[in-house]
Amino acid sequence: EASVSTVDGTPVLDFLVDGSMMRPRYLIRLFETARRRAITFDRRRIAEEDYRAALKELGWQVLEDLDREIVDLVPQGESFLFELLEQAEELTVEKFRYFCGTRLNSAEDVNRLLDVMLWNGSLGIQQGGSPRYIFDAGYKRQYLSARIKADRNTKLMIHPTLLAALVV
Questions:
Q1: Per-residue CA distances from 111 to 7, 15, 74, 114 (Å)
Q2: DSSP element (H, E) containing 150
Q3: Average pLDDT, whole number, for the chain?
Q4: Three-state DSSP class for residue 156
Q5: Distance (Å, rounded) from C-alpha 105 to C-alpha 158?
Q6: Sign (positive/negative) of CA torsion 103, 104, 105, 111?
Q7: Using one digit for the tens of pLDDT, what is the confidence trace for 80-127?
Q8: Taking the CB of residue 94, how many other CB atoms lie within 10 A of it?
């Protein structure tokens, strides 16, 4: 057996797919990082801690990728994403707009940032007690946007892969 079958009770394949944000390059990177870590520690079997460490490393990569996507919107953006992630617990559309509005030039820029983050899956909405990201909605950004427009108190969910980067 080359790998444990679950990570924190989740089947490994589900852990990999969920952590990859449905992006093939992230899926490959996540698995390869876990495998490389197991090899580095001279283990024949990939352990749960290898997958957790790989998710944390992938989280940093996703943050870097996202940072490049929003750099045009946030002139002094080097700490912007980290400040936004600190808002994760009780982040609503209204709080997102307020927080981003203090750093961006216009409401249009705030809306563009929200669209970018929804589109790339780093932000989702809470619906019926569970998160829904773009890939859960058939890549229909319009669906998520309509839900957000209907209720400015819609809870926004930051994808767990981004949050994993910040876990100490």
A1: 36, 31, 13, 5
A2: helix 141-150
A3: 90
A4: strand
A5: 23
A6: negative
A7: 788 888 888 889 999 999 998 888 878 888 888 898 899 989 999 998
A8: 13
> How far, in Å, are 55, 102, 111, 132 from residue 151 at the CA level?
32, 21, 15, 15
**Cα dist from 37 to 44, 47, 87, 115, 143, whole Å:** 11, 9, 31, 35, 39
DSSP per-residue letters across 49-118: HHHHHHHHHHHHHHHHHHHHHHTTT-TTTTTHHHHHHTTGGG-BHHHHHHHHHTTSS-HHHHHHHHHHHH
The answer to whether 134 and 144 have CB atoms below 8 angstroms apart is yes
pLDDT at residue 168 tops 80 = no
Higher-scoring residue by pLDDT: 54, 110: 54
Alpha-carbon span 138 to 140, nearest angstrom = 5
122: which 2 tokens?
């780093």
Placement of tokens 């024949």 in the chain? 44
Global pTM exceeds 0.85: yes
Tokens for 152, please give them.
Answer: 């400015």
Q: What percent of the chain has pLDDT over 90?
A: 61
pLDDT at 71: 77
Question: Is 12 strand, coil or helix?
Answer: helix
Lookup result for tokens 């969920």 = 18
